[in-house]
């Protein structure tokens, strides 16, 4: 018999048992035909059974291993799929069921397409991350000032554990921020470069050398991208500030030279042609540093030319300075003389003139000093104006008082002569003016004291203290009034004695006796003859008025030597004098004719 071969379609366990049964039957038939003993048969059957078990065991182990491998592949696929979902930030893949069913191979066949799609998505997302991160690193390197940067994408390390769209958006936002910062830095660099160009043109400097010195990449001729690092921006800012400071210094220097030129031109009457050569310097006086932008307006050549012109004019100024100083000195003396103030000493002025001749004095400081003196003199003269007006009124009233005293001493003042009526009218006006003198003097003293307290200095009138002059005048006036009172009393007493003697010695008639008694008892009636005699006595006292005028004149002379010594009046004596005067006037009725 040939070997048994099972049909190809029979693969089940029943077929296997049938096949084994046929084979055992065939083997029994062979053993029967051969006459094999029973022990040998049992031994062969045991070997066959062991061999079959071994084959089954190997097949089962192989099937178990294949199943385990498939389970592992399925688990790895599912784990990879889940990891890709997490890394890409997605919850699930559209079209794939949440739970899978079927055999392991069916599950593998189901997850394999979804896994391939997720792998493609990951690769695409990684490329996006790599491109964005590469741009971020490149721009960051440019901002950091790295001149050489390898922009190969392979150098970019992407974190594949987080490839979500949210993370990608964060990188894109960072990239946008860096783009904005780069643009801002480029704008700042361009702004600084433009400022350097403008300032260099104004100052007459070479801008390309200045920019290249900061960094070669800033020069467009180099053909490389501009360095926009913090250090370059700081250097550009420092360069612009230094150029602005130099511009400010030159402008201030030009302002000083322009002012000096104007002062010298005004002093020396420079012609318009010579002034026109430096008109551009004068035009800069009224502008600030920010307004100066014309190319070449602040070059060193312009400043040096202006300095040379100032130096040339300054050498010619000494001769004009003496003339100008004398002119201002005369102005100062005129102000002082007009207001009767103290005039600067001649010796001091002569010393200044000697310094001008020798050139050992600062002309500008000298002019400033004398201008300040003139300003102070004008200010003080203004503060003295109201007092000086009253002083002039007082002097005028004093002159009228002196004239009135002299006029009162003239015995022929009532005579009919040419101009007598004019003198009478003047005398009337003088009496009104003289009566106002006490109030005028009191007001003048009050204003003077207030002025001295405010200024904390003595009010001098022609180098004599004004208060001392007024007090001396009051004292002399009181002495004159006292002397007049004594003369009047003496005159009245002598007249009374004469009348009594005439009354006792003569034998008058009854009518004359009545008249005498009436004149004695009634206050002497109108007392016209007596008034005439009293006026004569006042004329005789005119000499005292002259002496008082002389006394006032001598006081002014002595006051210049005394320098501020004051003489105060005696108030008690004034009241006594007024009482005595009132008693005398009340004795005689009618006005006292001058």
UniProtKB/TrEMBL annotation:
<dbReference type="GO" id="GO:0000226">
    <property type="term" value="P:microtubule cytoskeleton organization"/>
</dbReference>
<keyword id="KW-0175">Coiled coil</keyword>
<protein>
    <recommendedName>
        <fullName>65-kDa microtubule-associated protein 8</fullName>
    </recommendedName>
</protein>
<feature type="compositionally biased region" description="Low complexity">
    <location>
        <begin position="492"/>
        <end position="501"/>
    </location>
</feature>
<feature type="region of interest" description="Disordered">
    <location>
        <begin position="481"/>
        <end position="526"/>
    </location>
</feature>
<dbReference type="GO" id="GO:0008017">
    <property type="term" value="F:microtubule binding"/>
</dbReference>
<feature type="compositionally biased region" description="Polar residues">
    <location>
        <begin position="502"/>
        <end position="520"/>
    </location>
</feature>
<feature type="coiled-coil region">
    <location>
        <begin position="233"/>
        <end position="260"/>
    </location>
</feature>
<keyword id="KW-0493">Microtubule</keyword>
<feature type="coiled-coil region">
    <location>
        <begin position="161"/>
        <end position="188"/>
    </location>
</feature>
<feature type="coiled-coil region">
    <location>
        <begin position="53"/>
        <end position="80"/>
    </location>
</feature>
<dbReference type="InterPro" id="IPR007145">
    <property type="entry name" value="MAP65_Ase1_PRC1"/>
</dbReference>
<keyword id="KW-0963">Cytoplasm</keyword>
<keyword id="KW-0206">Cytoskeleton</keyword>
<dbReference type="GO" id="GO:0005737">
    <property type="term" value="C:cytoplasm"/>
</dbReference>
<comment type="similarity">
    <text>Belongs to the MAP65/ASE1 family.</text>
</comment>
<dbReference type="GO" id="GO:0005819">
    <property type="term" value="C:spindle"/>
</dbReference>
<dbReference type="GO" id="GO:0005874">
    <property type="term" value="C:microtubule"/>
</dbReference>
<dbReference type="Pfam" id="PF03999">
    <property type="entry name" value="MAP65_ASE1"/>
</dbReference>
